[in-house]
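Before the break, one more example. Copy the sequence into your notebook; we will annotate it together after we see the structure.
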Amino acid sequence: MKTTGNELTGATDTDGNHSTEQQPGFEQPPSSRWHDRLKGLGNIPPVFRMVWKSAPSVVVSSALCRLVASLVPLGILAVTKYVIDSINHFARHESALPRMFWWVVALEFALATMAMISGRLIDFFDRVLSEKFTRYISIRIMEHASKLDLTSYEDPQFHDKLERARVQGTDRIGMLQSMGRFVQEIITTASLAASIFLFSPWILIALVVCVVPGFLAETHYAFMGYSLNFQQTPARRKMEYFRVLGGSKESAKELKLFGLGSFLVGRYRTLSDKMQAQTVGLATRKLFVVLPLAVLGGIGYYGTYAFAIHQTIIGVLTLGSLMFLAGAIAGASANIQAVFTTFSGIADQALFLTDLLEFFAVQPKVFSKPNAIPAPRPIRAGFEFKNVCFSYPGSSRVLLDNVNFRLDPSERLALVGKNGQGKTTLVKLLTRLYDVSSGQILLDGNDIRDYNLDDLWKEIGVIFQDFMRYEMTTSENIAIGRIDQLNNSFRIRSAAMKSQAEEVIKKLPHRYDQLLGSHFKGGMDLSGGEWQRLALARAYLRDAQLLILDEPTASLDARSEHEVFKRFAELTEGKMSLLISHRLSTVRMADRILVLENGRIAEQGHHDQLIKTGGSYAEMFELQAASYR
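Here is what the structure looks like once it is written out:
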C-alpha cells in the first residue's frame, strides 16, 4: 500500500479526491466533566456482550472460579480464629481440644489449596479469554471496515477513529480481567466488611472515609489520561508515518539522495518531545495529588488496627478475634482501595472503548436497497449519465458538474483530461464506490442504486493507477480479481497470458507459487511494469461485462503502454470498456473519446473528429506529439 503526503495533511489529491482537512497540532480532547466520565460506563454492557459472544463457556468458567476465590479469604480468617481461640483456651485451662479441631485445621489447608487452584485457573481462563476476544474483535473490525464507504477512507478523522478502534480492540484486554477482578473484589470486600461491621461499624466507616478521596483523585486523572490520549492520536499517526518513511524501501532512495534523514528525525523528535512533556506533566500532577491521599488511606488502616489491639488488651476481644479482625481490616482496606482503583481503571478503559463503539456505529451510505434487483446479464442498453453532479459532503467544490454521456454495449470509450478534472471520480461513480450528489446513472434504464451492489460489482473489472501490490503468491495476486477462482489454475494462467504477465512469471524461481514483495522471508519484488502486468491479469480473470483501466500503465514506457492497450483493445472486442490515459496516442483505438474539463464534458468524438475540431484534445495531442519529433 502506498503512503503519501495526504496521510499527513489531509490534502486533496491530483484528481480532486476529497479528504477532510486536519488542523495542525493535536485534536481537541473531550470534556472532563463527571457526567462524561460516568457516561463512559455505558460502554460496558455492549462490550460485555462482545466478550460473551467471543467465548461464553470461558466467561462462565472464569466467573465460577472468581466466586470461589472471593469467598476463600473470609473462610480462612474464620478457620484461623477458631484454631487460635481453641489453642488459647487449651493453653489457659489445659482442657482438651475440640473434637473437630484437626478437621478444621485440614479445612484451612483445603481452603488454601482452593485459593491456589482457583488463582491458577483464573489466570488460565483470562489468557484464553484474551486470545478469543482479541481474535473476535479483530475479525469484527476487519469485517466492518470492509463494508464502509470509500469516502470514509479519504477522511483523516476516520483514520484516527479506525486507528483508535484497532488499538482498543487489542489493548483493552486488561479491562476484561479488571471487570472479573472487580466483581471478585466486591464479593470479598462485602464479606469482610460484613464481618467487621458485626464487631464495630465505626471501624468500617473509618476505612471507607479514608479511601474515598483517593478514589476520586484516581478517577479524575484516569479521565485526564484518556483525554490526553485522544488528543494525541493524530500526532501519533504522524509519528508513525515519519518512522515508516525514515526506514522503508520505497523512500530509501530519496531519503539518501535528498539528505532527508535529519529532517525526518527532527519532525519525529518535535512531536515526541511535545507528547512526552504532556504525558510526564500529567503523571507529575497526579503524583503530587494522589500520593498524600494514599497516605490517608494508610492512616485509616493502621488507625483501625490499633483500635482493635486496644480492644483486645482491655479484654473486649479474644486473641482469635483480634487475628480475625486484623486480617479482615487488612483485607477490607486493601480490597476497598482495590475496588475503587479497579473501578477507576474500568471507567478509564470504558472511556477508551467509546472509540471502538463509535467505529462500529459508522454505517455505509452506499449500500444495496432491501429489494435490490440483480445486475443484468447480459447488459443490453449500457450505462447512461444523466445530469450527474458530484461534491463531497461538507465541501462546496463541485468535482463533476452536469455530466451527460452514454456508454453503449460493445463500445470502447476513452476518458482524457488534465489532472484534477474528475476522471477517477467519474470512474468511482460509474462503479458505485460513490453515489451521485444529483442526477442519475442508469444501467439498462434503471438507476444503478436499484441494483444489488455486490452483484453489480461482479460485472465490473477495474484496475486503478494506484493498484495494490499484494504480499502473496503470484497465483494469489492474480486470483484477487475473482477470488472464487483461486484454485482454478487454468483460468489464472489464461489471464496471465492475456496480460503478458506470463513472460514475467516464467522468470520467477517458483513461478505461480512464488511469494511476491519484500515484507516476508522468501519474497521476491518486481518492477513497476511487472506488477502492472499482474494487476492487468486480475482484470482479465474477472471476465466482467465492463472493463475499466484507470491509467494502470503509468510507469510503463510509451511503447510498452501502447502494446498493452493494443492487446486490451483486442481482448475487449465486443465488450464494454473504458480506458483512461495521459498518453493520447494510446486512446486513438477507442470508438469514442470524452474530454473532461473543470468537471464537465468539453468535447467528445472519435480521434480524427476531435483533431479536426481543433479544441482542447487537438491541442493536448499536438503538444505530446511534438515531444516525440
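Residues 273 and 279 are 10 Å apart (CA to CA). The first helix runs from residue 6 to 9. Try to locate both features in your own notes.
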